[in-house]
From TrEMBL:
<keyword id="KW-0472">Membrane</keyword>
<comment type="function">
    <text>Part of the twin-arginine translocation (Tat) system that transports large folded proteins containing a characteristic twin-arginine motif in their signal peptide across membranes.</text>
</comment>
<feature type="transmembrane region" description="Helical">
    <location>
        <begin position="254"/>
        <end position="274"/>
    </location>
</feature>
<dbReference type="GO" id="GO:0065002">
    <property type="term" value="P:intracellular protein transmembrane transport"/>
</dbReference>
<feature type="transmembrane region" description="Helical">
    <location>
        <begin position="108"/>
        <end position="125"/>
    </location>
</feature>
<keyword id="KW-1003">Cell membrane</keyword>
<dbReference type="GO" id="GO:0033281">
    <property type="term" value="C:TAT protein transport complex"/>
</dbReference>
<dbReference type="Pfam" id="PF00902">
    <property type="entry name" value="TatC"/>
</dbReference>
<keyword id="KW-0812">Transmembrane</keyword>
<dbReference type="GO" id="GO:0009977">
    <property type="term" value="F:proton motive force dependent protein transmembrane transporter activity"/>
</dbReference>
<keyword id="KW-0653">Protein transport</keyword>
<comment type="similarity">
    <text>Belongs to the TatC family.</text>
</comment>
<feature type="transmembrane region" description="Helical">
    <location>
        <begin position="34"/>
        <end position="52"/>
    </location>
</feature>
<dbReference type="GO" id="GO:0043953">
    <property type="term" value="P:protein transport by the Tat complex"/>
</dbReference>
<feature type="transmembrane region" description="Helical">
    <location>
        <begin position="195"/>
        <end position="220"/>
    </location>
</feature>
<feature type="transmembrane region" description="Helical">
    <location>
        <begin position="146"/>
        <end position="165"/>
    </location>
</feature>
<feature type="transmembrane region" description="Helical">
    <location>
        <begin position="232"/>
        <end position="248"/>
    </location>
</feature>
Amino acid sequence: MSDNKIVKAIKDKSKDLDVEMSFFDHIEILRWHLIRASIAVLVFTILAFVYYDWVFDNVIMGPMRTDFWTYRMLCKLGDYLQRPGFCIDKIPGKIINTEMAGQFTLELNSALIIGITLGFPYLLWEVWRFIKPALHEKERKAASGFVIYASLLFLLGIMFGYFIVAPESISFLANLSVSDKIENMFTVDSYLSSVATLTLATGVVFQLPIIVYILSTLGILTPAFMRNGRRFAIVGILVISAVITPTPDMLTMSIVSVPLFILYEVGIVVAGVVEKRKLKRQDQLVKTQ
């Protein structure tokens, strides 16, 4: 009897070791996926660092120039609507550096931000490659376009944040003056942080349909719940728009809030598609029984 207990204990221990080895094997695989994604981000960061003069003049400082694409389009829109107030012909204020290593830090941080932004689609691809083996065949087919859709939404969000949200906010804050005795001078860290936060935050917000898809698949969200909560969503979107764009005019808030409304409605459609698939699978299971 004691020998059987020993044999059983050895078998149980071997099972535990198998589980532990399997867990650590997965950690090792994930580590290599993250290493490859980090290398991609590093490559884009180095490229941004090498061509930093062009990046700084045309990308980072773009929203501070009156010939920026957004300001030119606003001038054309103002001419078409016969409202000259739309045209932004000056952006007062100076960008200053107040730290010894401030400009060097600016170069490193901005190059890293650009590297992360450009490497984000590849990061998603590596995450997908890690998750894919654990999914069933139907789940793989259902989520086959995850990387493409998430990357496109992120790119649209980045473009919307950089060309719409960031310049509108910067032009408003730069032109805001409580008194003529106060001169606007922004630290380089503050300026970079504002542009990066507004741009990247909008890119993340545009992932709403993907988030809805995941939550719907897990059974947390339903299209009925989202339709019933539409009025609360509208209030939330308006609050988010007001926070993102610190401008008092309704036009700017509308420009930001309309895409968010559209994304919410797209999320309802996505939740509806997921629910139909679930009901179809349930009907198939009932028929097979």
